[in-house]
Amino acid sequence: MTKSETYALNSAKIAEATKEWLTKRGVTTPQIAELVLFLQKDYYPDLTQQECERYVEAVLTKREVQNAVLTGIQLDLLAEEGKLLSPLQEMIENDEGLYGCDEVLALSIVNVYGSIGFTNFGYVDKLKPGILKKLNDKHDAACHTFLDDIVGAIAASASSRIAHRKQAEREGVVGPPID
Question: At 168, which helix (H) or strand (E)?
Fold first, then answer.
């Protein structure tokens, strides 16, 4: 029997692992929601933290997002443990500025949510507000080369969902629920 014959995808397990690994790496839904609020507060002054958290949760239900989270965190962990081959080890360990694969993985998340997601991602990636500043801090042993971009992409995607939903509401078109 081959590996492919014994493997069975378990979507619930993947979703659970995604949330678990974000938490283990020091990232919570409220922290990501703070980024969403930062991105959207000027456009929607009545937007609440709780509403942003619901949009973040909705983004985290997407398989593409879960795959990116799990892949990026694993690469960060392997770099922390020194288990990657050189020169990749050093590039990821030091968050090399010219190494763009971390952004490319994050863009696979925002790609699901359109051009607003791309522009929001670029904005938070440049400014590094909130949890992104902590994740980008190079003074501890933790490696978050992929995670900081992934968290920014999740926030940018939730912001995009909000923008699209609010526009539909203005037009009187009731779209599908946020989840």
Answer: helix 147-170
